[in-house]
Amino acid sequence: MNIAVIGTGYVGLVTGTCLAEVGNNVICVDIDEAKVAQMKNGKVPIFEPNLEELFLKNIKANRLHFTTHLKTALDKSQIIFLALPTPQDEDGSADLKYVESVAHELGDLITDYKIIINKSTVPVGTSEIVKNIIKRKTSVAFDVISNPEFLREGFAVQDFMTPERIIIGTKSKKAIDILNKLYSPFITLKRPVIVMDEKSAELTKYAANTFLATKITFMNEVANLCEIIGANVDDVRKGIGSDSRIGNKFLFPGIGFGGSCFPKDVNALVHSSDTAGYNFQILKSVLNVNQSQKKSLIPKFKKYFNNHISSKKVGIWGLAFKPNTDDIREAPAIDVINELLLEGIEITAYDPEAMPNMKRIYGDKITFCNNAYDVLKDVDCLLINTEWREFYSPDFDKMKKLMKQPVIFDGRNIFDMEVMKINGFHYESVGRKIVTK
Ligand code: UDX
């Protein structure tokens, strides 16, 4: 099949590459000329495991192309994916300016039947808006479909290739048939296509993301309670997660959720519910709790040093909002660093992938180190924000020799408490007892 993908962010690039991988002819469109030139030269603009390999393979096989010229892409393709950004407006709503502007162009440019598939997370009713914009401009037949994407950063290729379900929101029989064919390489009995109307499909994406954000936040509050009453959240997590109605995933407490999706989507659903006249109270609480959770290591750190913190030197492991990505959008590390800088604290930091992005924000306000151990030289304590694999089994003796004091505040519970006790650390984590020397 001939496919155009408009927008080459995470979702667009992964969609384009994976659809090419199963044999389709894909042309990716972006207005960013430098980015398109870079991709034509075989450079992947984002870090995502396994993407580069497929990207290069499909360019070589002549199935994956790039252009800035929308008309060229439209003329060659019947299926048009929209994978455009929907940034958060000041009031929390999703800004549709990119989607609407492309809809206008589609109305001007299409000359034969097209299936326009929206992959971006867009508020309920956006398919209808897109449909109406195009309809006002052309009499050519077309269908607009909502087909939300559920991929996770760090697992984007894997999630696209083996989705747990594919949601198709449309009433058009013709479009359903074509999409069933398009997705047939990814569908199995266990990975079904679920067809519904456009609005339900749009809401499914928000409901999924905000439910997961709520599940994490619930567990973060359980962890906070554990700290006060002296229970262990690891045990509580296992205890409730083994109930199949609850499930054991997305129950890991920490210093809050971040990223490009959860915070934005919770805000957007709160906003669109308010607009629709519904007060989505649980999601408002999720936002409040998450905001304070992101800073929850700071009071622990202050308390340990009896509020004498301004002369302290603090090391940080982890800057990305989660492991296996260089993405720092809404990363708890930003809240942590901002609080520390406000107190005039000296910071050294390391992250395997996200340092270039953080440097753009903080410049020389913090010292970026070449590896995890360089961070520790003469620090009064270590703060852990991201659970990168390479942090899990460090040389504790080497750490202690480098640090001024063996004190760790762990926002991701990466160490075993017994191990920390044996190694002589003061160790505070989330929802677990404090380990003292
Ligand atoms: C999420 C959804 O999982 C995905 O389906 C959707 O398409 C986009 O949004 P992503 O933002 O890439 O994906 O990250 P995810 O792995 O879901 O983690 C989101 C945040 O939740 C991270 O900040 C992570 O640290 C946090 N998290 C996740 C927890 O704090 N605890 C958990 O148990 C799981």
TrEMBL record:
Q: Which UniProt keywords apply?
A: NAD, Oxidoreductase
Q: In which pathway does it act?
A: Nucleotide-sugar biosynthesis; UDP-alpha-D-glucuronate biosynthesis; UDP-alpha-D-glucuronate from UDP-alpha-D-glucose: step 1/1
* Reactions the enzyme catalyzes: UDP-alpha-D-glucose + 2 NAD(+) + H2O = UDP-alpha-D-glucuronate + 2 NADH + 3 H(+)
- EC number in record: 1.1.1.22
Q: Which residues cross the membrane?
A: none
A Pfam family of the record is: UDPG_MGDP_dh_C
UDP-glucose/GDP-mannose dehydrogenase C-terminal domain residues are 315-417
What SMART domains has UniProt attached to this entry? Answer: UDPG_MGDP_dh_C
Q: What residue ranges carry the coiled-coil annotation?
A: none
MF terms (GO), sorted A to Z: oxidoreductase activity
Q: Give the record's family classification.
A: Belongs to the UDP-glucose/GDP-mannose dehydrogenase family.
PANTHER family the record matches: UDP-GLUCOSE 6-DEHYDROGENASE TUAD
What is the protein's name according to its record? UDP-glucose 6-dehydrogenase
